[in-house]
Design brief:
This protein folds into two domains: 1-36; 53-233, no CATH class. Helices cover 64% and strands 18% of the residues. The protein has a five-stranded mixed sheet with strand order 2-3-5-1-4. 10% of the residues are buried. It has helices at 2-37, 55-69, 89-102, 132-142, 157-182, 187-219, 235-238, 242-265, 268-289, and strands spanning 76-85, 106-114, 118-128, 145-155, 220-230. A hairpin with a 3-residue loop joins β2 (106-114) and β3 (118-128). By secondary structure, the protein is of the alpha+beta class. Keywords: Coiled coil, Membrane, Transmembrane, Transmembrane helix. The chain crosses the membrane at residues 254-281. Residues 74-281 form the DUF4349 domain.
């Protein structure tokens, strides 16, 4: 009897262990199913369209662009102006044209002034950056007497790099907005995205225009040249002396008098009004004097 009870106890213990293991196994499997089938809670939509942009990829690209722009060559703009006194404007202009041609330069603007005292030929010259110094030295040596010379250099590298990085960043976000526009579900989102695209495109046009301007000024330096010829008045032609000055003074005095007289004559309507004003004033005064 004792053996039978012991055997039944062993069988009961083994059955309980198997049931526990089976129950634990079922619970584990059920937990795994629940975990796999459990729906993911939806992410709240951003309040603004700009929040939909994923910054991580953009910043990584921007970082790479920044590294590329660090290797940009120096953006140096050279400018200068020279005033040269010459003996013959036409001859000097021919010399200038020959020098410009040999240095692959060209005249952007030309202005000629001829006064009683001097002749002035003002030129705005554009020359390749590498030929700027050679051109300046050529004008200093063979054209005439240099009265003044000013040369300046502006380093635009920092501004150019900054604009390039911002432009690259705007291009990244522009592509993101265009992708968002394709998947926009509401009219409001479409209009908002289109407005941001237009704003980015305008900013990019301005930035690209500034970069083109800097590149143009870097590739071609600007030199302002003034050819100056002073007119010498000889005594035979001008008769500079007391008599000539006296006659000039009389002429200027007469011209001043004529101008003054004409100015007075031009006021004739006011002179016609003076008698009327005096008459009305006397009439008003006589009425006031009567009791």
């Amino acid at each position: 009897m004792k053996n039978i009870v012991l055997a039944l106890s062993c069988l009961l213990l083994i059955h309980c262990n198997k049931s526990g293991v089976a129950e634990h196994s079922v619970k584990a499997d059920l937990f795994e199913v629940i975990s796999e089938d459990e729906p993911i809670s939806p992410v709240a939509p951003p309040n603004a369209v700009s929040e939909k942009l994923a910054p991580d990829k953009g910043y990584e690209t921007l970082s790479s662009v920044s590294k590329k722009t660090d290797t940009l060559s120096k953006k140096i703009i050279k400018n200068g102006d020279m005033k040269i006194q010459v003996g013959d404007i036409k001859k000097s202009q021919s010399q200038v044209n020959a020098i410009l041609k040999s240095n692959n330069a060209y005249i952007q603007k030309e202005d000629f002034q001829n006064t009683d005292r001097s002749e002035n030929l003002n030129l705005t010259v554009r020359v390749p950056h590498k030929n700027f110094d050679v051109l300046v030295n050529s004008f200093s040596d063979g054209v005439g007497s240099v009265l003044s010379k000013n040369i300046s250099s502006d380093d635009m590298t920092e501004e150019y790099t900054d604009i390039s990085i911002k432009l690259a960043n705007k291009k990244i976000y522009l592509e993101k907005y265009r992708d968002m526009l394709k998947s926009a579900s509401t009219t409001k989102d479409m209009l908002e995205i289109q407005e941001k695209i237009r704003g980015l495109e305008d900013e990019m046009d301005i930035a690209e225009g500034r970069l083109r301007f800097i590149d143009d000024r870097v590739n071609y330096s600007t030199l302002y040249i003034s050819l100056y010829k002073e007119k010498v008045r000889s005594s035979a032609t001008s008769k500079i002396g007391f008599g000539s000055r006296f006659i000039d003074s009389l002429t200027e005095g007469w011209n001043f008098f004529v101008g003054f007289l004409l100015g007075v004559v031009s006021l004739w309507p006011f002179f016609l009004l003076v008698p009327v004003v005096i008459f009305l004033w006397k009439k008003w005064k006589s009425r006031k004097a009567k009791p």
